[in-house]
Amino acid sequence: MSDEIWVCGDCRSVNKAREKHCYRCRVPRATAELTPAAAAISSLHTRELQTVLDRAERMGATYRPTWPLALVIVPVILATTWLSFAWTNALVASIGPNGETLSTQAVDALGMPLLVALFAGLLLWSTWIALVVANVPALTARQPLHSTIGAFFAQFRGFRAPYRVIWGVLAILSAGRSGPRLVVLGWWLALLSAYGAPLVVIILRGNETLYRALVVGMQVRLGLLAIAAVLAVALVIVVEREQRAALRRRDSVLVGVRHSLA
């Protein structure tokens, strides 16, 4: 290790030799300094990562905060879920026990607001995901599997596309940890199951009247939609948290190297 610098083992910051405490985390040098071999590896990795991040910035990969959009998405998710509950209950109430059609006034009144909320939510979600994908190179110097445009239209292409885009982003941002990606898996399974639940329940309860089977199916659907909404909000929080953590790691690398070269 050079006599001019030393590397903190706690936060991996590079310090000048005259400093007795890490400039970033303030841990004493006597307890935090890496061994010469470990410091050499850490310093080399830090410089390589700093070079890659600088190159990504020169290529136009800049970080843009996505939390303002996330703050809008969360209430839209909750509002859409509430409208889905209200519309479903109105639909069930509009069908008589013998399958006859009763008043559909409530169904018609809630139909348009629900469609508007679904479209707005889909547009906001797609924009947010596209911005998150665009941030990955700037935060980690790694290229995600999907482009920004591809991430935006993933919501419209197929039932696997949104799941794959978010899964790939979290695989990079969370450095391979399984916890964040389990949230993605739970959200996607709950969302898909919610739309197939009524048909499955009707088939499984074929010995009952269609009305009763439909009511049970709709109740199951509402339960799954509630779970999917909670997990969707949790997913937004997880992605934003992982972005902030990646931003702190990037800034630590850049500031540490530049500090050592000052």
Structure explained in plain terms:
Helix content is 73%, strand content 2%. The protein is mainly alpha-helical and 262 residues long. It has two domains: 5-60, no CATH class; 67-251, no CATH class. Strands 1-2 form a two-stranded antiparallel sheet. It is elongated, with a radius of gyration of 25 Å. The model has no long low-confidence stretch (mean pLDDT 81).
Summarize the structure.
Helices cover 73% and strands 2% of the residues. The chain has 262 residues and is an all-alpha fold.
Describe the secondary-structure layout.
Layout: E1 5-7, E2 14-16, H1 29-32, H2 36-58, H3 67-93, H4 105-140, H5 148-157, H6 161-173, H7 178-204, H8 210-261
Antiparallel strand pairs: 1-2
Q: Any idea how many domains? A: 2
Low-confidence stretches: none
First CA to last CA: what distance? Answer: 18 Å
Please give the number of β-strands: 2
Q: Portion of residues in helices?
A: over 70%
What class, by secondary structure content? Answer: mainly alpha
* Rg for CA atoms: 25 Å
What is the overall number of helices?
8
This entry's quaternary arrangement is: single chain
Average pLDDT, rounded to a whole number, is 81
Q: Give the amount of beta strand, in percent.
A: under 5%
Topology as a string of helices (H) and strands (E): EEHHHHHHHH
Strand order of the largest sheet: 1-2
Largest sheet: 2 strands, antiparallel
Form type: elongated
List descriptors.
8 helices, 2 domains, elongated, mainly alpha, two-stranded antiparallel sheet, 262 residues
